[in-house]
Amino acid sequence: MKKKFINGKIYGYKDATEILVEDGKFVKFGKDLGEADEVINLDGNLVIPPYVDAHLHLDYYMIGKTDEVKNESGTLFEAIDLWNDFKKGSTKKEMKKRIRQAVEDCVSYGTQYIRAQTDCTDPNLTGIKAALEVRDELKDKVTIQVVAFPQNGMYSYKEEGKTGRDLVEEALELGCEVVGGIPHNEWSREIGEKSIKEIVDLAVKHNKLIDVHCDETDDVMARFLEVLNAEAMIKGISKKTTASHTCSFGSSDDSYAFRMMGLFRKSKLNFVSLPTENAFLQGRQDTYPKRRGLTRVREFVDNDINVCFGQDSIVDLWYPAGNGNLMNILDNGIHLAQLMEEKDFGKNLDLITYNGAKALCIQDEYGFDEGKPANFIVLDAPNEFEAIRNRAECLSSVRNGEFLFKKAKREFEVPLNL
Predict the structure, then answer these.
(1) Residue ranges of the Amidohydrolase domain (predicted)?
(2) pTM (2 decimals)?
(3) 400 φψ region: left (φ > 0), alpha (ψ -120 to 50), beta (else)
(4) 310 lies in which domain range?
(5) Is there a single domain that holds both residue 238 and residue 381?
(6) pLDDT tens digit string along 169-208?
């Protein structure tokens, strides 16, 4: 069955206004594409690839609203300690319920791809098993990559005779696609470096991707990023490796940063910045000037180093807000990174679409190319600038040529007559 979507502003195509889809695949982009079994009018709205949330903790969803725990200091490390106790009382059924609702929230805003950072420092791997089941149950509607993430450390965690490292490997064998890590939460620099080397070795051994919570601290002496980059380069898997957060790199001196930027250009390492959560978490020990926890996003963009944005958290112990709407994340991120020159607006949407797809290594199935799955969203805006300026609402989401949802445009019930 052929479907033709007409009267759209197609992202990345200067003159195309129509999309031809057959059997769930893109057939052609252009004008006057001929007859079709069904014609859908896009009403002049902007059409872009689906949002990609490259970093989200689905298993933590809404636990910030529970009565049992409260992060009094608002810091990263108190949140980790509180979660360690809270998760022990969570069943797989409860985990699955949280994860499914988080996914539903994200999909309702136009996200179709999620990298789910899922805690595996639990001898029963409760969250991992829940996330893998949800991934498989919802695969026709959303693509989820599950990260085996040792929240309490690869080596600084041990329970029931199992280290975090042991549990990471168990999670990979269960089917997780990505090896995670958190070197700055290990007990020493030496142990943190050891964890990175093991992360890379596990990725090679099991043929997995890598995504490390790396240097999520204001401490300029936290330089696990350079170790991760070097180890990934040595093993030839830099393009399959992502460094998330890298907050301390935003505080490092320019001489060090200049050297590292050259290495990142060479390695093709991917970066994920989490603008809302890190702006909230970082700088807690600063008076003024107060750091905002952002890595060098502007410099990455200007130097063609792949960087994208993610939500990170939705109302949990780390972050008290969030709703899964990546347009809000983009708006905050481009303000903090000062990506608001005229030339920036034409490509800023890449930070929550194509750049995220590159970090997830899904370019073969993602984007506006003939033969790829017909996945896209329609925004309530005529062009990129208006979409970003107005935080445009996602009016519809299409997966394999079929609507996941459609919304009517907002209208005044009583017309505004000025």
Answers:
(1) 90-403
(2) 0.96
(3) left
(4) 51-360
(5) no
(6) 999 999 999 999 999 999 999 999 999 999 999 999 999 9
